[in-house]
């Protein structure tokens, strides 16, 4: 991007929401991600519903990653828009041993695509790969679905710490890509980076496939 | 209520969604659009505007954009109003009793809204000096500070202009105006050469400062403006929360232990923070308050669950706290923050997350129904209308135990207070006793002191030489001396003093008992008082008696002197003599005070002493009169004497006038004078 930002511009600010039914392991994923990095010290922190991390990008810039956990209970489903408003990415987490949670993810995806179009990076996460023997949602099925809606698919195990770091790396990457595709001042939320390269606003409903094999690569459960 | 037909919270809200069909909720303020769509629409408009008039690109075009958008928005604005009116009818089924409130309250409140807003205008502006100080403390170059200040002033005046303009007002235009200013300031801070050397933190603090100053100073304009429905929403949500007072932590499935006193304390902390949001002016401070509130909740959840809490736990707990707190002007505060804080603040960062949670908690409260609480619609309705009090056996048992616990605690406290009370009252009685003792002690001491040192009045001793002096003096100024003048000035006093003198002197000379002599003098002085008042007689009478007395007395004294008091110094000067006399006079005064308990017996003595004097004066008349034994009789005698000597007086008056200068000092001398003379006078008969 522009040299000026690299020199002294504000750090990029990414917001990602964690969506998914209750008990699919959203919080565990976040905790694992933070814990892994900070060597278990994070457990002493007060809460796991909002975490923020600074990550270094490939081009040397730094980005701030804000991960917003949401309440997964069905009764709070309607409140979703309040959370993913203005977010750059969404992690849609389901339990591979629970078909219902996968159906829930589908409904989330529909909602997100309807409301946010393509300006949000979606990653469908099949969690609990340590419970492979109880799997209820086939890997291929999920992957197929993800492709049709222009999302990435990742399988993880928060318990075994498998694929977690990769998941968030992919997320950062996707959000960065999103950012570069978006029109610079389409949203006032992009105040921190006002001089993003003004690319043509791609209004296609499908994400242009970046050809990034990360999604497939990080399906480490299998 | 047709909640059974629309069981799901989501399904019931279709009418509320954005007009563009994006799926988000629209709001009446946004012309029925959701905030995102609304922004997009506005952005497109703004771009068009910018393209059409290429005049002010970049930073200086903010006001133009605002003005332009105002023009463009006017048709839509009208539409927005239409939408607003329609709204309450549309959303009847899903939103519980909302319709009733909107129908009634909008009418009543909108009229009063403007007035209320104006009343609220008395927000004490934090001193600008404070902000100036803070501006100085910002670690940015002076050039940048100047620019920042300029921007603050510009936005201030723009807001003011907008608020005082005549055109139709839309809160979103105002919000955009502010947000544009934020963008502009952010642009300046990050790209302006005057900020070149500033670090990123300093830049952020400069932007924060900008926001804080503008928002604090314009709080009165921007907080719940009269042309919004914020007030209505405030009242609505407050009523709603009041209706939902029966909700317990159990309904919300949250892990707050209502019966744990420690947990309760934390809940109270969170509640007080939440309520405190209203007391801050700037959006930052309000967000800070929210942040603290949520921190308390997380602390609470951590104790309850034993680990870092997730959103699954947090949101219900927050909803619970909001329900129990029922903060004032909830919507106004939320809207104020969402409209006028730097948009990035709400969308990122921890406080942004908490604020979003707060928003969703409020949304949940507004639209919750029986299903979302895990109870049937009928039960929910019954609970809402207050027909059915909520109670589950276990819950009420726990709460009952808690109440019992509270009762016992209170009883303990009462006992303690009772003890304290008893202690205080016993202290009071002991203190009273002490006071009485002290009083007694003081009186005793005073009594002993009085007993030890009684007031002893010593007899008046007239030094013998004074008599001689007086005599000598009289001798010197026999004819027209100032003594006569004194007597004239003294008036009635002289006659009285004469009697006093006579009374007092005699015992001294006779060396009788001191007490007796004292009483004599006192008697005389006592007697003097009453005649004094009675004897306010014509001057001629007054003159007559002293002269008469004097001359007679003088004659006697002069005659007797050599025989009785041979040792006195005859040649004393007048001045010394007077001094001596004043002393004597003083003694007499003392005797006056003590002489009140003198008896009638002594008066006889007094009179006896007087006898010779009177006899010497006028031998024929006085004896018969004086024998009747009262001081007043002396007075009655005076006119008599006056009558006797009418002719010599008249020349004396003239002479007196000549000596008028000496009047005042001579009064005292007069009495004293005669005391000394009296001594002689009394002496003479003996």
UniProtKB/TrEMBL annotation, chain A:
Example GO biological process: protein transport
GO molecular function: GTP binding; GTPase activity
Sequence segments annotated as region (Disordered): 184-222
Cellular localization per UniProt: Endomembrane system
Record's bilayer topology term: Lipid-anchor
Keyword Lipoprotein listed: yes
One GO CC term, this protein: endomembrane system
SMART domains for this protein: RAB (SM00175), RAN (SM00176), RAS (SM00173), RHO (SM00174)
Biased amino acid composition, Polar residues: 193-202
UniProt keyword annotations, A-Z: GTP-binding, Lipoprotein, Membrane, Nucleotide-binding, Prenylation, Protein transport, Transport
PROSITE patterns linked to this entry: RAB (PS51419), RAS (PS51421), RHO (PS51420)
Family statement drawn from the similarity comment of this UniProt entry: Belongs to the small GTPase superfamily. Rab family.
Protein name (database record): Ras-related protein Rab-21
Species of provenance: Drosophila rhopaloa (Fruit fly)
UniProtKB/TrEMBL annotation, chain B:
Residue intervals of the VPS9 domain: 231-374
A Pfam family per the record: zf-A20
Basic residues composition-biased segments: 75-85
Matches recorded under InterPro entries: DUF5601 (IPR041545), VPS9 (IPR003123), Vps9-like (IPR045046), VPS9_dom_sf (IPR037191), Znf_A20 (IPR002653)
Biased composition (Polar residues): 57-66
The species this protein was found in: Drosophila rhopaloa (Fruit fly)
Record-annotated A20-type domain positions: 12-46
Domain of life, source organism: Eukaryota
UniProt protein name: Rab5 GDP/GTP exchange factor isoform X1
Assigned keywords, A-Z: Metal-binding, Zinc, Zinc-finger
Annotated region (Disordered), positions in chain: 49-94
